[in-house]
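Obj: model holo form, ligand = nickel (II) ion.
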Amino acid sequence: MPILNRIAAFHDDMTAWRRDLHAHPEIGFEEVRTSAFVAGKLAEFGIEVHRGLARTGVVGVLRGKREGGAIGLRADMDALPMQEENEFAHASRHPGKMHGCGHDGHTTMLLGAARYLAETRNFAGTVHFIFQPAEEGLGGGRLMVEEGLFESFPCQQVFGMHNWPDMPVGTFGVHSSAVMAAADRFEIVVAGKGGHAAMPHHTIDPVVVAAQIVTALQSLVSRTTDPVDTAVVSITTIHGGTTFNVIPREVVLTGTARAFRPATRDHLEAGIARIAQAIAAAHGAQAAVDYRRCYPPTINHADEANLAARVAAEVVGAGNVSLDPQPSMGAEDFAFMLERKPGCYVWLGQGSGPNSCMVHNPRYDFNDEVLPIGASYWAALVETALAPASR
Ligand code: NI
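Output (holo structure tokens):
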């Protein structure tokens, strides 16, 4: 089962949908036009539509020709708050907003599969098409789960997909376990004593303390984490002071920590607080550390990964399915769904040609060439996972 002919036949339609979504990007929880577009298409295909879960989320429910189990297929709909630098006809019409991560393509591929599956219904059981809002940092997936996604739409398994610009068109990457890291954020407020920059002995300089904290935090991964484990601690902002001759009272640092294993995550959280507070104390200053756990690691389940790899191989050939490529330290909201249900999140090659660039780049654009590949994968996955029992 390579690219399904019926899906290839509406490649042009999918391209038009994708470019329309690209031209009208909406950021997390503001996907009003996008969710109306999705709901309209699903209804047009004859699929039962449920709106309003996690504010702008949409779930389509489609039953096959026979009774059977139920699975969820998930796509994300949100854009990024960034300025697009492309100049083609379908470039963003909304300044400061851009489909810089290809969620326009993800939404389109799932709609394409929905159209095909609604026509054929060649499966036993129920498919839930899950269109989630706010994947980019706002936890739309978590909110859908909290608002009862799997109670209202029970699924035995759940599947996700993301385009991957580092892999050629016509390839898939399937991990049997860890795919993406847990992503946490923290803020450290270093409080000292402000004063005249020419009389530092009357102050407790939080700038010097903050600088030492930034440096010391680098040892958390390099010296205290198992070298064959993987973790990141990045300080990404430093704010303090107002002018050249005043030592400020406080400096605020923010950053992110990434890890795969729960124990490593605990280790980073405890270590950041310990190092910041001890260094501050050594200088007579104080450090208040606020550590927030954001996205859990995205961990595939082995059986579902096996199934996904088999289906991907049917679509693009086994030689084009990379098994267990190196995981990414990026994070993914689909992790919240995988915490609740067994499932698999795959990477879809999006091409490494001269025009391709990584996601979140102002020149990025989803590659329309892969639309029928992704949609065929979804369709084949349903027909395989919910195959009518042979008799
Ligand atoms: Ni994304």
